[in-house]
Amino acid sequence: MKIAILSRNKKLYSTNSLYEAGIARGHDVRVIDYLKCHMEVTSLRPSIYLGEEKLEGYDAIIPRIGATYTFFGCAVVRQFEMMGVYSVNESVAITRARDKLRSLQLLARKGIGMPVTTFAHDPRAAEHLIKQVGGAPLVIKLLEGTQGVGVVLAETKKAGESVIEAFRGLNANILAQEFIKEAGGSDIRCFVVGGKVVASIKREAKEGEFRSNLHRGGTASVTKITPEERSTAVRAAKILGLNVAGVDLLRSNHGPVVMEVNSSPGLEGIETATGKDVAGMIIDLIEKNANKPAATRTRTRGKG
């Protein structure tokens, strides 16, 4: 099969791992910088170009869209979809997952456990937001943040009010969330591929830090998850329409709660810690689904 990996950098671990896995299985794999693409939007023959080259004949794409370029990246993914190309994660699902508020609302509607979360436009509502999440300490997040950037632990009510007012003063959209103290600065990353948790790791924050992101110095180790945690991760990915997802859970006193669902989860931490060929599993997913009729393989058609 002819597979395109939409990524800005072939040297990134995740991109290279997917590339090598595809080549090892005998596929024609190419890494395409989606920011260098341009599109011809027509009703009869939609097309996409890389410079002067017309990109055609692809069976599948693997989107690795950076958060900064979600809008344009998803437009490229959508164009490939219009051309009948199978996408591991569809454009609608990616945009759902990238919008933290929207994704939490979708998960809440289906009964997925999550920390108490509040959202408001008016900075004068800060005191009420803090009260609704159970008071301090609380976590305040930028809606557009990734890899732990824009996430603040406010240890006192006054600090929480100050952070909320500062972010809103910059016209930034933020969430306030309940702080799950019993998680102890650790979370569970469940890697979902094709409706199954194929690998899971426990990520622990470095000393003096509450964010467990590996990009922020956290450590990863293999962990065994419970049936409830497995079910929660699979359901969360399905609700957002993601075939491939990194579902981040916290172990709370009232069961697993979802912190975030990532549409472009990194492979380095999970493959290094578990020794599993997760990239190969993603290629296997493509082999099983790329040649199916488009109407039977989509997970988000008509759902916006």
Number of domains: 3
Measured between the Cα atoms of the first and last residue, the distance is: 29 Å
| CATH level-4 homologous superfamily of the largest domain | ATP-grasp fold, B domain
The count of helical stretches stands at 10
Note poorly predicted spans: none
Total strand count, please? 16
Task: Give the C-alpha Rg.
Answer: 20 Å
Strand content: 25-35%
Structural class by secondary-structure content: alpha+beta
CATH architecture of the largest domain: 2-Layer Sandwich
Major sheet: arrangement of strands: 14-13-12-15-16
As a percent range, the share of helical residues equals: 25-40%
What's the CATH topology name of the largest domain? Answer: D-amino Acid Aminotransferase, Chain A, domain 1
3D shape = globular
Mean pLDDT over all positions: 89
Largest sheet: 5 strands, antiparallel
Order of helices and strands, N to C? EHEEEEEHEHHEHEEHEEEEHEEHHH
Please give a structural write-up.
The chain has 304 residues and is an alpha+beta fold. It folds into three domains: 2-96, Rossmann fold, CATH 3.40.50; 117-179, Dna Ligase, domain 1 (2-Layer Sandwich), CATH 3.30.1490.20; 182-286, D-amino Acid Aminotransferase, Chain A, domain 1 (2-Layer Sandwich), CATH 3.30.470. 33% of the residues lie in helices and 27% in strands. It has ten helices and 16 strands. It has helices at residues 13-24, 70-82, 91-98, 100-109, 126-132, 157-169, 227-240, 268-274, 278-289, 294-297; strands at residues 2-6, 28-32, 37-40, 47-50, 53-54, 60-63, 86-87, 117-119, 138-142, 151-154, 174-178, 186-193, 196-204, 219-222, 244-252, 255-262. The strands form four sheets. It has a five-stranded antiparallel β-sheet, with helices on both faces. A four-stranded parallel β-sheet has the order 2-1-6-7, with helices on both faces. The two termini are 29 Å apart. The mean pLDDT is 89.
